[in-house]
Amino acid sequence: MNGSALSGVRIIDLTTVIFGPSASQILADYGADVIKVEAPGGDSTRHTGPSAEAGMASLFLGANRNKRSIVVDLKEEAGRQVLMALIDTADVFMHNIRPQKLPGLELTREALCARHPRLIYAGLHGFGEDGPYAGKAAYDDIIQALSGAADLSRRQSGTPRYMPTIVADKVGGQMAAHAILAALYQRERTGRGQFIEIPMFEATVQFLLMEHYNSRHIAKNSLKTNGDDDEGFGYRRTLSPSRKPFRTQDGYVCFMPYSDRDWQKFFHAIGRGDLARDARFTKMSTRARHIEELYQLLETIIAENSTDYWIKMGARLSLACAPVNRLEDLEYDPHLEAVAMFATMPTGGDWDMRFVRSPIKLAESNVSPTIPPRLGEHSEEILAELDLPQEVRNAVLSV
What we know:
- The chain has helices at residues 19-29, 58-61, 77-88, 102-105, 109-115, 140-147, 149-157, 167-190, 200-209, 215-218, 236-239, 260-269, 273-277, 284-289, 291-302, 307-317, 334-338, 379-384, 390-397, and strands at residues 10-13, 33-38, 67-71, 92-95, 120-125, 194-199, 246-247, 252-256, 320-323, 342-346, 352-356.
- The chain is an alpha/beta fold.
């Protein structure tokens, strides 16, 4: 890992599923030595989705590259000794254990931060410890329901629905990664580690309300107190039921003039000078107030020609326009092919791993990707790096 941004940084990762592992994968992509500490049964995602090899299911492959795996049974004294020895060597310790279970495992932040003043201790929780939800079970569906994600779907479609992606886990993972990086940078200046709390609920609320919150407090009609009143809350453009790919004569297209100039060019190009002069659509502020009418007009107009017609018009007028990719189209998107977004790694088995690389490129940092570890693949190697009695090593390897 020489030459990587996080070369020399060791992370002991006790997290499971996607929230924590997606965060530690980001750090591993930057070159950190991420040691994935797994219970004897392994991370549950090892068995979630299709697999070409037992314990290497699709969901696990998506969030665990560039890591090493050691199996440790924390119910056994030898396992707890190994975990403590690992933490003794760590820059970062991260877990998603519910707070009420930590004292029994001797993993409270007070104990570990006192023992290791330079340690970055990251607690990835469902909810912040200071609130009444602290310690409750938190899965992506639960967080989507509580955070307003399902309500955003209701406001647009009339029916509350979960987003068809594990958005809360992934948003929380992104925030955890940048919080850990910030703490590491601060430690370079102060010499001291710290506790970091990354609550998935609060992280998702902040993420979702970025464009939706302040409108209610700025709008002139925002002082209504009826809890069932949607007026003034939310960014109208993204909540419009008509905000969707537009049907063409032969498919669908995303067509999005944005600025005042864009809309003027578009209206004149289609021979609708009347719309170019329409006071509802001449400025950003008035278009925002009449976004539903605008989208409905656009829907009617786009349906009159083919997808290729609108793609070519967009290119000619320098307007934002794109085809609608299916998930199975992405590997063959010309841009993603050109930037080598998808790659293949040998696994040492009778299958190769196709993966989506990190989108980030650091000019002075280079990490050669490795496949997600098999369960306990590096147990012996990692134990050899620790100053532990042989009987403890043997006890852990016998699990």
